[in-house]
Amino acid sequence: MKKQQISAVILCGGLSQRMQGADKGLQLLRQKPLVMHVKARLQGQVQQILINANRNQQHYAKCGLPVFMDELDGFLGPLSGMLSGLKHSVSEWVLFVPCDAPFLPSDLAARLQSAVRQQPAELAYVSDGEREHPTFALMNKSLIPALETYLLEGGRKVRDFMHRQCYSVVDFSDQPQAFANFNYLSQLDELNRRQAPTSIPMLGISGYSGSGKTTLLEKLLPHLQRKGLRVAVIKHTHHDVSTDKPGKDSWRMTQAGATQVAVACDQRWALMTETQTTQSAVSLTYLAQQLDSHLSDLVLVEGFKQEALPKILLHRQAMAKPLPEIDQWVVALATDYAVQAQHSAVCLDLNGMEEIAGFIYRWWLTMQDKEGQ
Predict the structure, then answer these.
(1) 276-303 per-position pLDDT tens digit
(2) Which bin fits 33, alpha (ψ -120 to 50), beta or left (φ > 0)?
(3) Which of 72, 280, 288, 357 is the most buried (most CB within 10 A)?
(4) The domain containing residue 263 runs over which residues?
């Protein structure tokens, strides 16, 4: 069984009674719905992600994922969503997770998958060492008849149903914090106050001129977008830059002496700022502060090679210059030739976009885990 043979269902179908009926998956953590945090954690683990929601389907559809309701009426609990999820899945195996677990493990699917292979079992679910979490479960479609019968006979308890099957409980005591969830609005409010978004993780793309930094970024962005990341880019250039057109109204305002000109239309807006001749070059820190942490999850920085930030260093064999020194900030080395790992830097294929995107995504998850601690 490969990861391509697993689908995932985010369970958003409950009544959220402890949240006064608020639709839990749509509540905001760091200005992003909980369901979007869960989606980001699942990206790269499974082939397909679906959402089970019995309310506000039009809002969940904005996540860009298929949305389906329980087939059985009456808000019958997680098992009803699991039954419908098994029926809607294109895969034989389905991973189920609740919508209020924004820190779930990046290896959740792989470890549950390993457990059902070893036993073998029809399902596997999580224990964090102290508590069991049966709504974090990998289930086989062969369970559909038994689950349907259990529900129609009045059964509602997730663990009770699972213990009637051939099951495995998987130990995640190495990362119990990954299963922290939110049952009350006050819990979300507290975390949002404690961890208000002030900055976005930044990762540099560095290398000599001609090493292909811009080309790499252009090819990487679609891969990262498919993994659910909203990416901003900051680029340094030694040339004079003009985003305006001579003769346009905004250009005329600048020529007349405006220090900043903002232009807006229905599709986008831009702010053009003139650097005063008496000022030093604008800093990366200042530029990063201009970005909206509600709109982007990650900033990729091209250039600014002297800045103290984590970076991927690029080098091509055909270049006349030797490989630059690998300092403490280089987290990965991307080349088009074989090279031995230096320090703790990971070696990547410069032409392997999915490999590089996967590394960046895992690095971003690590940053998120540190922020959530």
Answers:
(1) 665 566 788 888 888 887 788 899 999 8
(2) beta
(3) 357
(4) 240-281
